[in-house]
Amino acid sequence: MGYYEILKSDKNTSQPWYFVLRAGNHEIIAVSEMYSSKQAAQKGIASVRANATTDTVHDRS
């Protein structure tokens, strides 16, 4: 089963947060746009979940 990871970029930017969607074998399926806050990235995941079949989120921040 796939899962999401919430990540924060090491770069000094106003939008450092993003998420990746990984397959069950841990390969990256998709990378999100950059978000200004962790909460905004979580909302992005919620939007993707409406069209995906996984419910697992791995918060790596």
TrEMBL record:
SUPFAM superfamilies: YegP-like
Gene3D superfamilies: YegP-like (3.30.160.160)
Record Pfam families: DUF1508
Record InterPro entries: DUF1508, UPF0339_domain, YegP-like_sf
Domain of life assignment: Bacteria
Residue stretches making up the DUF1508 domain: 16-59
Family as reported in the entry's similarity comment: Belongs to the UPF0339 family. Duplicated subfamily.
Protein name, entry field: DUF1508 domain-containing protein
The species this protein was found in: Mixta tenebrionis
